[in-house]
Amino acid sequence: MKKILFLFLSVILFSCTKQQESILDAYKANDLQEIFEQANVNGCFIIHDFKNNKSLAYNPERLDSAFLPASTFKIINSMIALETEVIKDENEIIKWDGKKRFIEAWNQDHNLASGIKNSVVWFYQELARQIGEERMNYWVEKADYGNKNIGGKIDLFWLNGDIRITPNQQIDFLKRLYLNQLPFQKKNQETVKKILLVEQTDDYSIRAKTGWAARIEQEIGWYVGYLENENNVYFFALNMNINSSDEAKYRKQITTDILKVLNLTR
Q1: Phi, psi at residue 236, to the nearest 5°?
Q2: Which residues are catalytic?
Q3: pTM score, two decimals?
Q4: Which of 2, 62, 70, 136 has the most CB atoms at less than 10 Å from its CB?
Q5: What pLDDT digit, counting tens, does each position of 168-193 carry?
């Protein structure tokens, strides 16, 4: 009887400690490298299998390098604006100031939903000004966002100021958002997740945000977010150098190609 009990306990222990297989196990960094080389882009990429706690990365040395978040900061900026009641929900309109900008979609009234979809800089600058330096600093620190340094002008610090975030930190922040573990009310985290939706099919949904730090010498591009299907969640972060405006398209294109190669999308 003791032998049977021992065998039974051994089987349970083995099954509990056996590492789960991940869809990422079938791939290597070389599979991602080819996509970057075809685009002739210098950058890095990480995708994290949440359920099985496994990651696949290209150019992992760069994943702990810190960069300006650019428009990926709009994710936390949205939550801070909601939490401080600068804006009440994703539908409240902020009037366009009438100044013509180079992107036509910006030249109109916007709310959170359209502001993040079109990455409207003036809209988020207005939110930041209304939030103010004291409250912005408090919430960036409380959320443990990047290096937590909002040095620079209150309406420019994420574009050319002192705040920095690494690709690995982007993944951590997105995981905490997904789990509603950021220090914001659950309803505000859910609102931001809702406005981050960029693709929805019967098989999966993608919530993501681009970024482009274009006001510095070496311009930087981002595409960060997560793909959710019925079985799992996959968090991703792409970071790349941008040397000309023609290369900006590769932020999303490279990510899209990688997700297809991994059979996570069609």
Answers
A1: -140, 155
A2: 71
A3: 0.92
A4: 70
A5: 999 999 999 999 999 999 999 999 99
